[in-house]
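Follow-up to my earlier ticket, as requested here are the two runs.
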Amino acid sequence: MMNTTDDLAPPVRSILAAARERAAPEGRVDADAASLADALTAAAADGRVPVIAEVKPTSPTTDGHRADDPVELAESMVAGGAAALSVLTEPEHFGGSVETLERVRAAVDVPVLRKDFVLDEAGLDAVAADAVLLIARFVDDLPALVEAARDRGMEPLVEVHTAAELERALDAGATVIGVNNRDLARLEVDRATFESVAPHAPDDVTLIAESGIETPAHARRMREADADGLLIGSAIMGSDDVAEGTRRLVSA
């Protein structure tokens, strides 16, 4: 059962309320998807830090709005060595859209993760992606949603914040799991979150460290804690040269 939202930061409560009010899409997506996990493995084998670079025009935890063409940003991230991309499709609080994801996915040759607040099966059908984020805390029937994503050809990336949520994700059959260093109650970042949760994961799970990875030292720290991939948004989006900002972290 989904946890209460009473202790969540007001922006997160607002995001969830907007997600619940979004109109259900018509039809069902069928994604011809590339494997996010395989792309991360290949990047590591190539000597790169496996980075999922995020196209994120804005967010409740950043100042300002980046108005560059998202396809140009995405292409620069790939040129900088990103193993995969994440594209926000949440419109009200992150400036994202499903159209942006479609354009980016058509333009690049790396897997694209859809990042949004998907709460139920209908939410999966907004747009096809290679992978889709499912936040364990906000999903009532996680096993069903994991299966529904796979039935549509998309790889579910289940996000957790605690060892208990990790156990729930594993019980739901998740094989790609993101550990968010940002506390959704206070929106504060603690990189020790990944370090505390990661040891509880079995070796055959692809573990992704999310949030608060701003420097090459942070990237190295997460890799040393057994992160198989790093999801990086603001540190790259805030770079004057997005390709170079990606390259700096990929080479950490």
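Run two:
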Amino acid sequence: MASQSRVCTISFAFVIAGLSVFAGPGSTFAQAPSEAQILDALKPRNTRGLAPATPEEQRKAEDDRRFIEELRNRQKSRSLTPRERDTVAKIAADKPSVDIEIQFDFNSDVVSAQGRESVRALGRVLSGEQLKGTVFFLNGHTDGKGGADYNQGLSERRAEAVKRALIEEFRLPADTLIAVGYGKTRLKNTTDPLAGENRRVQIVNTEQPATAAR
């Protein structure tokens, strides 16, 4: 089929403000970020050691930690429930995250040759000394075209494809990469549901080390 030769692009949601390299969550680079920019975006922002956390913050941090550990301890991949996906989104909302353009063949969950270069850039950063041993979310999203169930499955498969590539090439531990699919439920550009920026996989630093007892 002629359409199979087309290439789809999936990008990663990133944290920046104004013209600076790093700031609050939710913005994106105009062009593909360099490895230095990816690292800067994903660096932990937790400076809690400077002041004691409130009891409420402590409870939330502990709830988040237990939830992330539950996802890591699952023996095999399965779709998360809508409630679990909402919990992931809430945790990710104020964490460091980055947008990287990754290409897939049309209607496919196989990372293309071009897309592999972007995955390698990400892999070099995640396997580096500053981020190694940290748990990350890989949150897959699609644009608004097509049915909800199909897009949900496609977003999950593409997030898993990025996870597999990082594991195979950079030997990242599987339980430090949590793949989640959102389908078309969380469009980045709601005014244009078919916009390319909606097709993305968000890399989120949970700021949780993978050193808890297994």
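The only thing I checked on run two: The beta strands are 7-10, 97-98, 102-105, 134-141, 177-181, 200-209. Let me know what else you need.
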